[in-house]
Fold these 3 entries.
Entry 1:
Amino acid sequence: MSKDTDFQQIKKEIREWIKLDYIIPKDIPDIELYMDQVTNFMDAHLYHNKRGEDDKTLTKTMINNYAKNKLLPPPNKKRYGKEHIIILIYIYYLKNVISINDIQKLLYPMTERFFDKAPDSPEERTMSDIYESIYELEKSEYFNIESSTARAEELTEKLFPKEEDEYLHKMALIYLLGYDIYSKKRLIERLIDEMPDPVTPEEQKKSEKEAQKEAKKEAKKQNRKVKKNDKGK
């Protein structure tokens, strides 16, 4: 068997290993869903991504925590719209890579700019437009992941042939893949660190109140100085 044939066979195996369920943009419902319907929708579309049968794709507790941590805008009368689903999909993939704080920092500007966008908004894109574009990017990136993973397997096979020592083969392959993931994770964190910290409306109001208090204190301080100077004349 030629090297090219070997590599194609490896790619075929890799394709099965890294195959993931994903949610096609047109499959996201345009109607509002209750929480049970949201969790059922996510489970139905991402079922094969679970590592074990008992693993949960999304739970009510998760959704409530996301809302509590300002990752997810509140529902409309206990109903979640298409834009809620899109944000939950982003969170689903990101939470396995970065921290909740980093996800909040990354997605807060998204909800501020595009969630439930007003008719007079200057933004030309909608959240659905952005999701469709990212979905197309991910589809093309899949083949790059397939090729790079197959190359890692090929390199590992040269140094630690599976037939000679399966443990060392798997250990070396896992290390190579882990190094790749770690490097990209560090890059993701650096990009997030370069983003400004999000300021919620509540934090903005608090900051404004504190500024007003400081201004009043400074004004009183200046008045006392003026009165003291007047007395000294």
Entry 2:
Amino acid sequence: MKKVLIFVLCAAMTVCVFGACSKKDSKETTAAKSTTVKMTTDSAVIKEADAINLIQSYSNEELGLTKKERKKASFMVAGSGVEVEGDNYIEVVATIKNEHKDGDKVSYTFDHLGMYYIRYDGKKIMRKDMKSKEAKYIDMKIKAVPSTTAAHEHKETSEKTTAKEKE
């Protein structure tokens, strides 16, 4: 249990540290100035597991990953949102967890293979160019993946309507 908690905390801290990107409408964007602010994701259309499912729905090529990298990678969502030049993003990271043993001590490091940003309104998705030494971002094609939250709310609304009709 302690290992899982340490992994989650380390992952969240690592993901939050790498939250810099720039807003432009071109295919590639270079971040001149980046500002990262922690914030709640309550207003995001897609969040948590839905954000991971959305990113995982892309091909290896679209994600910038090899087949081998994709197979080893774990996808995680940052615990808080990232603000980049006025826009709010959910950050999803494809990472590999490495365990290091030194006697009785065990530590972990994470190799980030890909970093992906979903704007809160769901209308823009970017991936960080991990091979570039500069902070460079590439716009990705937007896919409409139904949110389990939205599907649940729709089901509740339908059930209420059906119950009223029966009365």
Entry 3:
Amino acid sequence: MSDFTKNDNASMNRYPESISEMTQSVQGICTGNYSNDELRFVVFCIESLAEDMNVDPVIVHDALTKESDIVDQYIIPCYETLHTQGKEYIVENLKEVMAERGIVL
């Protein structure tokens, strides 16, 4: 089971308790109309990258949404595959995608 699918994931606890509150807080991240699970996964990716890179999550958010289209063009389209992977794999994969697209934090 991936780290994302565990209900006790500590990084997810920093966000609002209910799905509707969490969705409202991250709705602006993506340009499309995505499911709550996809939005939660985007938050997980941002938090995990921020933790791994020791960077503020806002900086990671901006890099994945404003400086690039990684959320809309990579994370969401690859959600079905990515969310089945472990946290370490997801973080390393996203760091590779960022490097390929010239995103440096």
